[in-house]
Amino acid sequence: MGPMIAYLGLSVTMLSLAVNCHSDRCLVGNNHKTLPSPEPGMQACTKYSQSSCCYANYTQQLNVSPLIKVNNMYWNTCGQLSPQCEQYLKNVDCFYHCSPHAFHWVNPNNSYSIIAVPICRSYCDDWFTACKNDRTCARNWITDWEWNEQGNRCKNECIPFHQMFKDGKDLCESMWSPSFNVSSSNCHCLMLDDNNDDIIEHPLTHERGTATPAQDVHQDVDRSPFCQQRYKKMQKKKIKAMKQSS
């Protein structure tokens, strides 16, 4: 069994286990509900409005651009982020605070953080492209700051994202500590610009309902009707976003 196929099988298995072990709940936090529920009037993160773990008033601070500060954390420590880079950070914040699915990957050591969320490599690559010329002083946006009563401050010099991170995989797996794990599959993984209801609801073993041998996973990912439909959906969404930004 080749290492790539074995890793792919592990990625799909971990996603399946995470989804099967938890029904939709909410993380524990100052801005989280106990259970997800419809939330009309959201000004941002609207993809979660039908089942949200955050209240509508939380999203008011995200509905601005340029965005300077969220709660007590400054996003402009190295100058204002570009709109396209800013949107990717908003997607992370929306997922963490508002997604009813984030709890599937709750950190077992504390109920207010997530760990090893399987994120799509293509999404991380697009994120890296969007932010590569923006500047940051922190490689890990959870730990690499000096904090005081006003908020976060740089400990290190500001450098471009493309110098801080090697590529999209490095960005996704480093910027938010162990929160995200880049999947070798672009089907059985999450895209943070989507509500991901389809991948959560899809049975993530085999479409016949039985466990899939690791050597068959690659073929399943590439050829299953579910994955082919998801690829098309992702491509249409990407083309639409490119047209809107041009």
TrEMBL record:
Q: Could you tell me which Pfam families the record lists for this protein?
A: Folate_rec
**GO cellular component terms, A-Z:** external side of plasma membrane
Highest rank taxon of the organism: Eukaryota
Q: Which UniProt keywords apply?
A: Disulfide bond, Signal
Q: Tell me where the signal peptide lies.
A: 1-18
**PANTHER family in alphabetical order:** FOLATE RECEPTOR, RETBINDIN
The UniProt family comment states: Belongs to the folate receptor family.
> In its UniProt entry, what is this protein called?
Riboflavin-binding protein
Q: Which organism is it from?
A: Callorhinchus milii
